[in-house]
Amino acid sequence: MRAGVRLDGARCVAVMVDPHGVVVAEHALTSEPDAAIDEILGWLARQAGTSLQTATFDVSPLLQTEQEGRVLAIRIAPRPAADDIHELAVAPELSGSVRGTLHVGGGHDMRGRQLTDLRLADLRQQLADHGPVQPGGLVVSVAAVGSIANPDHEERAADAILDAFPDARISLSHEFFSSALRDRDFTSTANAALLHPGERLAARLERAAAAQLPGVPIAFALGDGGRSPIRRLNATPVHALRAGRAMQVQGARHLAGLDHGDLLILDDDSAVVAHVQHGVPAANTLVKRGRAPSLASNTARVDEHSPTQLYDLAAPLAVVDARTERGPLPHGVPEPTIVAEADLGALGAAVAPLSSWSDSLRHASAAGELQGVLRATEEELRSQTIHWGAGPESTRVVESDAYTLAYGSRHVVRIRVRVIGDWVAAAELSEAV
Amino acid sequence: MRELTVDDIDRLATGAQFLSCSIDPTAMFMYAEMTRQAMRSATLQLADLDDLDDDALAVSVGVVSHGLLMAEMPPTGDEMLGVLGAIETALGRPVDAVFPLAAANVNAITPLLASLQVGLPVADADSMGRVFPLISQTTLNAGGVGIGPVALMGPTGERVTIEVSDARRAEALVRAATEELGGWAVAATYPCSVRELRAHGVRRSMSRMLALGDVMEGAGPAQAKYRQLADLVGSSRIARAQVTHVESSFGPSEVALPAQPSSLTLLDDGSGRIVRLEIQNEILMVLVDGAVAAAVPDIITLVDPERGAVVSLDDVRVGDVLDLLKTPADPKWYEPAGVSLAGPAAFGIPIQEIPA
After folding, report:
1. Domain B2-205 classified CATH 3.40.50.300?
2. Cβ contact B319–A312 (<8 Å)
3. Per-residue pLDDT for A421 more than 80?
4. Cys staple from A4: which of A132, A350, A407, B292, with CB 3.0 to 4.6 Å?
5. Is the pLDDT of residue B238 over 80?
């Protein structure tokens, strides 16, 4: 048995599926999320007992960036801005979370070569000058030029911060892929502002699960439609922010038995379109926010439906109706092929596979070398997924591509690999149904 | 002389992206935002070449890259001043106007901020009318205008002035220096008289980007925009197709271009035709069922048919449906000297004739 739980301020829902992915029970309650956690876990324990394999929580509605101005944003670049116009501004939505920014000399180019020495003594001095640390500890975001090619300066800066403040919580920008420093800085800073809330949520869920579902692996839902062990919520909570829509897509995909094709999902508020590849939602690396910095977190690609929507004619289209009241269809929406009875978000969490990514710049001077890099990365991710609890036979490479960078260095390529594990095959569901 | 508004900067950026969708627009949007901020305390003048004295000194400014993307290491802010100062020192006279090295993507915007910083007008002209990977691939070079002296300033603050006249030699020297300066450099090139710029540059290229931005930012479906683009700049749609394959090639390349070539394969969802894009920094050629449908110096733009908006090549993924638009480059590029510098053969593509 697998369980998926959508923790929402207004309505919390749990769905349980059998090993074939068939929904066997659903439970909804309107209590406030903290109380709902115990009640839902108790319900899961009564329903499944020791047969529960995993429980995945979509915590996205509960994740809010801290506004206490706790985050110190450290930028590592060869030189500071010469004027205010050229200063990398803190995004307005994070201004309440950031207590200050520090500039430290350092950085690498896209080949991973050092541009200037990392000024660690300067960093230590600036940290000392910055004033007393707030109760609850220091939270730091570190973003260095070129860290996607060489994370050395970010890592050494983190070591220096931990030397001075052993309890500091640190977010490093190279954990989030974008070839624009401002995107990584924004994402790392947002992640830093979510570290304490994520940590509290993870601890709360782990405590409750240990009491009511001892031994059951607990996971949190990701924006890419997958899941990750709950302890990762302590480190990269930003990846949970966009999980709500992704879980809905995953749930609809599962109901439709779709391994590859287009999905149109109707709910009470919207009609949206998503694309499914290899049994998971197609994902974008960046959540674009107009001309503001992008969020560098792999996120299911979901668009508003339009009456002139273009679909992949060579692949199936599933239309999933998840409305609570079945009125006339919106203009241009084809007749539903599936009517969802279960909560799509909670169902999606129940069937979400373990998901791991590698997105970085690598050096390859020949096709054979590039293939070797991709293969090695695929195996690293398989190992990680197995380490997280997937059976070796259940791992699957769903994306493994190399991209050149316009006007970048020759032989520097971006590789993007994704492995999923412990997934429920659409075919199994179709047969079971 | 025309005073540009803050709204013009947005339109110009959109038009600049239309002319070079192969480059991630992040750096351009960052520069556009900086320019908007700088316009709070200074006015930005766009000068038609007829507004300037024939003997006035115009200098192109732009960013050359080799190993570090500008969005990864934003400029500090003193680079434009640094390179213009170096050119003035080298020539012993003040600069009267600046113009873009390339009227596309980030290089369309950088002269605007430079203009605000130094208080000079931006000339409504450039040296490419689009963007090409090499600084020697300009209509000014095709017309015999010298590229040097060239001044460079990189992200680390180091500055290089190169005394050079041959644009191909300058290309090699600048590319090598840029790599050592940190991966990108602001460059001042092609110091020339307004008379030379009028004769051998691409005129009114800034105005053209504003007009393109006006169309692309307009409301209405993609089809309506295509009709306006056809009237404005002669654009035509090559195909509407779905991306089926992305490929990086590591074959030998005899052409000294930065970055590896790559290809995109699409399937035309209406006719089943196979469409292939050959890319090396810019989209160099489009093949439809093996026949050349467009090739450099033609400008290829990817458009999202749902939104009628330009799609950056970096955002393209397998499964995406795209419209491929072809827009003719400036007529100078189809003359023998232009084709020699920036036709298919200049990129190592052995085709003799560019389809009309």
Report:
1. no
2. yes
3. yes
4. A350
5. yes
Report DSSP state, residue A234. Answer: G
CA B217 to the chain's CA centroid: 20
Cβ–Cβ contact A20 with B under 8 A: no
- 0.95 surpassed by pTM: no
The minimal CB distance from A181 to the residues B72, B179, B305 is found for B72
DSSP element (H, E) containing A43: helix A33-48
Task: Mutation target for A interface from B39, B113, B260: give the one with most A CBs within 10 A.
Answer: B260
CB distance from A146 to chain B under 8 Å? yes
Give B181-205 pLDDT, tens digit per residue.
988 999 999 999 999 999 999 999 9
Query: pLDDT tens for residues A87-135?
Result: 988 999 999 999 999 999 999 988 889 999 999 999 999 998 877 666 6
More confident residue, B72 or A365: B72
Residues 63-92 (B) with a CB less than 8 A from some CB of A: 65-69, 71-78
Average model confidence (pLDDT) across chain B: 91
Write out the CATH class of domain B232-339. Answer: mainly beta
Say what the pLDDT of residue B348 is: 87
Q: Where in chain B is the domain with CATH 2.40.390?
A: 232-339
Phi, psi of B232 (to 5 degrees): -75, -50
Chain B residue whose CA is closest to A287: B315
Look at residue A430 and tell me whether its pLDDT is greater than 70: no
Domain with CATH 3.40.1610.10 in chain B: 2-205
